[in-house]
Every structure is written in structure tokens, then in C-alpha cells.
Amino acid sequence: MYELFAAGDYDAAAELVDLEIDWDTSAAPAGGRVTGAEAAIGDYRGMREAWEEFELVAEDFVEAGDHVVVIVRNSGRGVGGGVPIEARRAHVWVLRDGVPVSFRLYLDPDEALAAVGASG
Predict the structure, then answer these.
(1) Domain ranges of the chain
(2) Average pLDDT over every residue of 6-13
């Protein structure tokens, strides 16, 4: 999925998640919560369009039962020549039969790991 996001192939990414995925990015300043594959991918696309330059790199994957915590590094520069940023975040996915049914963004990777009872 991360490779598809990087390539901008949002339609293919939408095919990998449950049609009714719970997508929660409310931890981000402009984040929110939506339901459904189309809305989730639309949320990601909207976030991505706010950046003139953007890179999201999955650095580590931690399995914890039906959860997978993905530690990511994102960097970029906002549209219109914004200040460059670099940050480590975490994505917590819940899988059912190998299909993502839930996604939650955490600004603090340690908080994400603690939420699922894992350590990095």
C-alpha cells in the first residue's frame, strides 16, 4: 500500500482495504475521521495535495495480534513554498483476514505501540 501511495496509484490502494474501512487521522491538525475506502483514499489524496514535495517512508512494521503498527518518516514542503518538515509518526492498522479494516494515525510512535500493547 505504501508503494502505491508513493506512486500516486490511489485506485489500486483503495482496492486493498475493506470497503467500509474506519479511517482516523484526527490526530493531525487538519485530520478527521471517515468511513469507507473511497472516503479514506480521498482523505489521503487531499492531505497529499497540500504538499508541493512529500515523501512517506515506512521504516518499521510491528505486528501485535490483529494490529500492525507502521512507523513512518514523512518529510516535505507545503504548497506555495512552505517550510520543510520532517517527522516520525505511526500508523496503526487493524486487519481481518489480511485486509485492513481500520487505520489510525498517531503523532507519537511510542503512543501507538503502547495502544496495541507492543514495543518497538
Answers:
(1) 2-115
(2) 90
Q: pLDDT of 20-56, one tens digit each?
A: 999 999 999 888 999 999 999 999 888 888 888 889 9
Could you tell me which CATH number the domain at 2-115 has? 3.10.450.50
**Residue 82: predicted pLDDT:** 76
Give the predicted TM-score (pTM) of the model.
0.90
Q: Which amino acid is at 17?
A: V
* CB-side neighbour CA atoms (13 Å) of 4: 13
Among residues 94, 90, 102, which one has the least CA distance to residue 33? Answer: 102
List own/partner pairs for 74-79 with CB under 8 A and 24 or more apart: 76/51, 76/52, 77/51, 77/52, 77/53, 78/50, 78/51, 78/52, 79/49, 79/50, 79/51, 79/52
- 92: its cell numbers: 496503526
CA angle 38, 41, 44 (to 5 degrees): 150
